[in-house]
Known about the structure:
Blueprint: H1 2-18, H2 24-28, H3 33-45, E1 50-59, E2 62-72, E3 86-98, E4 101-109, H4 111-117
Antiparallel strand pairs: 1-2, 2-3, 3-4
Amino acid sequence: xxxxxxxxxxxxxxxxxxxxxxxxxxxxxxxxxxxxxxxxxxxxxxxxxxxxxxxxxxxxxxxxxxxxxxxxxxxxxxxxxxxxxxxxxxxxxxxxxxxxxxxxxxxxxxxxxxxxxxxxxxx
Length: 123
């Protein structure tokens, strides 16, 4: 079960975020629509976004993924015009997997660092 749950978590980054295959969300998440909308919006602003999974830790039905993301601000995001600037930020997601799908998830990521890198807030 642990290896299967880790594989599901890894697909979030590889298939959804990195490849941009939003249809995969239906296979991975119990409630996929919000996830698809968020990733589509983010990828429109950072079309080359790439997540590297640094750690995957599993216990029972819980998975923790620590990641680093890199991309280029090429589209409007949160009302901020494209800057062409490269960004790098880190984050962690906690997932609960039930019957082979993500039932709950919570992500904490360094949005302040991203905003500073695109010049939206002072460093």
